[in-house]
Write a structure and sequence with these properties.
This protein is of the alpha+beta class. It has one domain (12-162): Pleckstrin-homology domain (PH domain)/Phosphotyrosine-binding domain (PTB) (PH-domain like), CATH 2.30.29.30. Helices cover 28% and strands 29% of the residues. It has helices at residues 44-50, 57-77, 80-85, 145-155; strands at residues 12-18, 21-27, 31-38, 96-99, 105-109, 124-129, 133-139, 159-162. Strands 4-3-2-1-7-6-5-8 form an 8-stranded mixed β-sheet. β2 and β3 form a beta hairpin. The radius of gyration is 16 Å and the shape is globular.
Length: 163
């Protein structure tokens, strides 16, 4: 599987699943921005993986295709101005912004182990927040971990990687 291009006009970003939602996370100078862009089926590859497991998969294909198109529309709403003004926070109650001072540590596991999920080479990224809170995202699709680490270290000092 090829790595996904993580360059936007201004910010480095990554994609990840958390709580059955698919997020686009932006690394900004001030912290980490996260916006929900889809549910459990964000793209045709995941639809192909998930649909055969469902007996009604053939009939659900048009529904998933519509959801995938909706994901692209949501992602198009997230331009640089929307991220900088934090207007994206109004688009979904699960969207968030963590100031860089709030993130005490980031742990990246380049590849998942002992986990049977359709995207087998995806890793995880865990953000350690105040009050011992942790948010873990399953990175999907395969992403440029080294570039991601480099950009994260510019904003958050404590970035740890497990291979």
């Amino acid at each position: 599987m090829e790595e996904y291009n993580q360059i936007s006009s201004k910010y480095t970003f990554l994609y990840g699943f958390h709580s059955r939602k698919y997020f686009k996370l932006f690394i900004t100078d001030n912290g980490i921005c996260g916006a929900v862009i889809a549910g459990t089926i964000p793209d045709p590859i995941m639809a192909d993986i998930m649909l055969p497991r469902n007996p009604a998969g053939f009939f659900l294909e048009p529904v998933y295709n519509k959801k995938i198109m909706k994901r692209h529309d949501k992602e198009d709403e997230l331009d640089t101005d929307t991220i900088e003004s934090l207007d994206y926070l109004k688009l979904d109650k699960k969207n968030f912004f963590w100031k860089k001072e709030e993130v005490s540590e980031i742990n990246i596991q380049a590849k998942m182990h002992n986990f049977t999920w359709p995207a087998k080479n995806s890793g995880t990224i865990t953000f350690h927040l105040p009050k011992r809170k942790k948010k873990t995202f399953i990175m999907y699709p395969v992403q440029d971990i080294e570039g991601l680490i480099e950009e994260l270290k510019k904003v958050i000092a404590n970035v740890k990687v497990t291979h």
